[in-house]
Design goal:
The structure holds two protein chains of two kinds. In chain A, strand 2 and strand 3 form a beta hairpin. Chain A is built from twelve helices and ten strands. Chain A has three domains: about 110 residues, Butyryl-Coa Dehydrogenase, subunit A, domain 1 (Orthogonal Bundle), CATH 1.10.540; about 110 residues, Butyryl-CoA Dehydrogenase, subunit A, domain 2; about 150 residues, Butyryl-CoA Dehydrogenase, subunit A, domain 3. Chain B is of the alpha+beta class. Chain B has three domains: about 110 residues, Orthogonal Bundle (Butyryl-Coa Dehydrogenase, subunit A, domain 1), CATH 1.10.540.10; about 100 residues, Butyryl-CoA Dehydrogenase, subunit A, domain 2; about 140 residues, Butyryl-CoA Dehydrogenase, subunit A, domain 3 (Up-down Bundle), CATH 1.20.140.10. Chain B is about 50% helix and about 15% strand. In chain B, strand 2 and strand 3 form a beta hairpin. Classes of the chains: A alpha+beta, B alpha+beta.
């Protein structure tokens, strides 16, 4: 048997056994996820014992398909996306065996929710400019500073935290990455309400919070490298959704046309245009997944986040337009409330008006569309970067504001 | 259905693409295409000769008539490569003519197809009578029965490859029904007037028929079916051509953005330029997905979606890429000497040929029951 066939046999066998021993329709989700992790089918390319079978990552798509066909619960991936979609990859690439042992299983079973503590009031797109300080004190690190826009921080057990440990070095070099206990003393979380009234995100304050050195990820000063792993996983997690044709906001637009549409041929044509653009994006995602599985990823794997952000804004605005004066109302009304992970805005069906509001975040969260265009231009097309005034200066001398 | 389609080219297709690319490199050049653009009957005979020798002209026709028995997707690979260099060959027109003849199921197909499939004869559809209008409706051109067969009278406009073609597939009204006929260019009563084409690499003609001798291919539903199949195949092949052209524009723009310096830096380091390139990339990748998808789906209901999808998405992408490519090149991009205009003209004319973008959006809306 060739390598690939042997791997396929291994994955198939594990999957068959999992589905036979833990029938998804009768086993509660948490128990199923635990069994899935133990079977090595959480992240199939991870090491055995870490929720994987040490096979090629191309088998991830096979695992997803089998789970979907069997009707197994997979919503842990979106509900705990920062853990399962991003933190897991960080731990696999940069964590120690002990760290993987400690964190991966409860992450996958949703016993522990994760959040990402990157952005700060003074460091958004330019996240490497961040100023939250960590200072070593024996076997511990003492952290002071503020993070912002931290999605799910109020529900999280653990946070992926980037800090500045050496302000005398240029900004990319003086950073160190930790996993922080969100319930530790000196960590305080306050909800931030977004334009819909919901608080998916928070501001998080560190006031002499202590982190054991055992929670440091990778070397002191390697924080930027680890952050890049995180962001790459994030953009794949956001852009790479394969939804069935006509679902999501375009489905809502079609629905609205059928109920409120006035038959105007120009509007109908515009709807067909949007439908076509969304379908083209969907087919591109399928193509990207296929190439990823085959181990031949191309530029089509990087366009999804940007395309989706722009299109979702257009489609949701179109839907509200169709509603005429109905579009001046919002059925949910506004109440300021913190989200729960099962019912976050991104997880439930919103009214067209509310979806229209939520869509404004698509081109900001996970890297703004301007930054995504820079990335496509520079990393995919190989265009030169911009002149940088801050690159080689010690971080503490860089102008801020 | 949608989900079961794969996109990656087969090994044979990768090979086919590089063979066509070599052929194009060896047999023609952008300078030659530019020169041909000053004529009203542009025909890159050397490139065509190469395609003939490779047996590519009749690629999708059955073996019995000298074709290659290959898939539409294989043909798509050829179109993509030819589109990448806007090669002036009448492959689209000939493909549509062959497809109509083959799909008509007419007994005459066995006589007509071998010369077309070999590339010795050039075919085209003559089915438009004005700048607007649906070629599947019963046209003004009329056919009457005569002793020797039929006689056609009327005028067809915007006939692609019209100045080059020897075999016309002509739509006409026969007893009030849509019918398709074959008319040979040298038949009595046929007059071909070349028209200056916006995209001179795809020449156009007005063809008038004055009692011209014609042989019947199909009538009524059969004619409509054969014609609509030919037009749909044309749209899908042309979508691949558009993808080839658009991705060539992107390559050119990126190349130039890296090497042209202003204000002491490469213009590609300016976001206004970089972001244009990034948006082109998204458009090109989307176009590629729908074009390949269209060439691979076989389910008729799915193809009904895929055809207008491919036409509208790929046209928009090509127009964007070809237009922005000129912009990124600045003044030099506006010169005759530069290649950019060849793509821009091809982009515009392909967006109008075989049903406008708007018409295809309407068609998509119809299929989706919007
Ligand atoms: C709903 C939501 C959830 C979020 N969740 C999290 C989270 O869980 N964890 C976390 O760490 N962060 C999170 N963020 C923060 C997000 O990553 C930042 O908002 C984003 O990176 C932009 O940073 P900023 O808000 O400081 O804007 P800025 O960086 O100040 O940008 C302001 C404007 O300037 C533009 N700009 C900035 N730099 C450039 C440049 N080089 N070229 C061109 N234009 C530029 C931007 O595109 C934007 O238009 C979330 C944001 C939102 C909206």
């Amino acid at each position: 048997m060739t390598g690939v066939n042997a791997e396929q046999a291994k994955v198939t066998e594990a999957m068959d056994r999992l589905l036979a021993d833990f029938p998804p329709d009768s086993v509660p989700p948490k128990e199923f996820w635990g069994a899935q992790f133990d079977a090595g089918l959480a992240w199939v390319d991870f090491e055995e014992g870490d929720g994987g079978l040490a096979v090629s990552p191309s088998f991830r798509a096979y695992v997803s398909r089998r789970l979907r066909e069997a009707g197994a619960p997979t919503w842990n991936r979106s509900a705990n996306i920062i853990g399962i979609g991003m933190g897991s990859g960080v731990l696999a690439a940069h964590g120690t065996p002990e760290q993987r042992q400690r964190w991966l299983r409860p992450m996958f079973t949703m016993d522990e929710i994760w959040c990402q503590l990157f952005s700060e009031p003074g460091a958004g797109s330019d996240v490497a400019a961040l100023s939250t300080r960590a200072v070593r004190d024996g076997d511990e690190w003492v952290v002071n500073g503020q993070k912002v826009w931290t999605t799910l921080a109020h529900l999280a057990s653990w946070g992926l935290l980037v800090t500045r440990t050496d302000p005398d070095l240029p900004k990319h070099r003086g950073l160190t990455y930790f996993v922080v206990d969100m319930h530790a003393d000196g960590v305080e979380c306050r909800p931030l309400y977004q334009i819909t009234g919901e608080a998916e995100f928070n501001e998080v304050f560190f006031d002499d919070a202590r982190i054991p050195d055992g929670n440091r990820i990778d070397e002191v000063g390697a924080g930027w490298r680890v952050s890049m792993t995180t962001l790459m996983n994030e953009r794949v997690a956001i852009g790479g959704n394969t939804v069935p044709r006509g679902h999501g906001s375009i489905g809502q637009a079609v629905e609205a046309w059928k109920t409120h549409g006035d038959g105007n041929p120009a509007t109908r044509r515009e709807l067909a245009r949007l439908w076509g653009e969304v379908e083209a994006m969907r087919l591109t995602t399928l193509r990207a997944v296929e190439n990823m599985e085959a181990g031949t990823p191309g530029p089509e794997g990087s366009t999804g986040k940007l395309a989706w952000a722009d299109l979702n804004k257009e489609v949701t605005a179109f839907t509200v337009d169709l509603m005429g004066l109905g579009g001046t109302t919002i059925p949910e009304g506004y109440t300021l409330e913190a989200t729960s992970y099962e019912t976050r805005e991104t997880e439930r069906v919103l009214s067209p008006q509310r979806a229209f509001l939520r869509a404004r975040a698509n081109s900001i969260e996970g890297g703004t569309s301007e930054i995504m265009r820079n990335i496509l231009g520079e990393r995919v097309l190989g265009l030169p970067g911009e002149p940088r005034v801050d690159k080689d200066l010690p971080w503490k001398e860089v102008p801020r504001g | 259905m949608a989900e079961s389609i794969t996109f990656a080219p087969t090994d044979e297709q990768v090979l086919l693409a590089s063979t066509i690319r070599e052929l194009v490199d060896a047999s023609t050049s952008m300078d030659r295409t530019r020169e041909l653009s000053l004529t009203v009957d542009a025909f890159d005979t050397e490139a065509w000769e190469g395609l003939k020798q490779m047996g590519v002209v009749g690629l999708t026709m059955p073996y019995e008539v000298g074709g290659g028995g290959a898939s539409l997707d294989d043909l798509g690979v050829v179109f993509e490569e030819l589109g990448r260099r806007v090669v002036a060959v009448p492959l689209l027109s000939t493909t549509m003519a062959m497809t109509a003849i083959h799909a008509s199921g007419s007994a005459a197909a066995a006589d007509l197809l071998p010369a077309l499939a070999s590339g010795d004869a050039i075919g085209t559809l003559a089915v438009h009578e004005g700048p607007h209008g649906d070629p599947l409706q019963v046209p003004n051109t009329t056919a009457i029965e005569v002793d020797s067969g039929h006689a056609l009278s009327g005028a067809k406009r915007f006939v692609t490859a019209g100045p080059l073609a020897s075999t016309f597939v002509v739509s006409a009204s026969l007893d009030g029904e849509l019918a398709l006929f074959i008319v040979h260019v040298d038949a009595e009563g046929v007059d071909v007037q070349a028209v200056s084409a916006l995209d001179a690499t795809r020449p156009l003609a007005t063809v008038t028929f004055d009692g011209a001798e014609a042989s019947l291919l199909a009538v009524g539903d059969e004619a409509r079916e054969a014609l609509s199949t030919a037009l749909d195949i044309g749209v899908l092949a042309m979508a691949r051509e558009q993808v080839g052209g658009a991705s060539a524009c992107l390559d050119m723009a990126v190349e130039y953005a890296k090497s042209r310096f202003q204000f002491g830096r490469a213009i590609g380091s300016f976001q206004a330029v970089k972001h244009m390139c990034a948006d082109m990339l998204v458009a090109v990748e989307h176009a590629r997905s729908v074009a390949v998808y269209g060439c691979r789906v076989e389910d008729p209901a799915e193809r009904d979606i895929a055809v207008p999808l491919a036409k509208s998405v790929c046209s928009a992408a090509y127009l964007q890429a070809a237009g922005d490519n000129i912009q990124i090149h600045g003044g030099i991009g506006f010169t005759w000497e530069h290649d950019a205009h060849l793509y821009f003209k091809r982009a515009k004319s392909t967006s109008l040929l075989l049903g406008s973008v708007d018409a295809h959006r309407d068609r998509l809306a119809d299929v989706l029951e919007l």
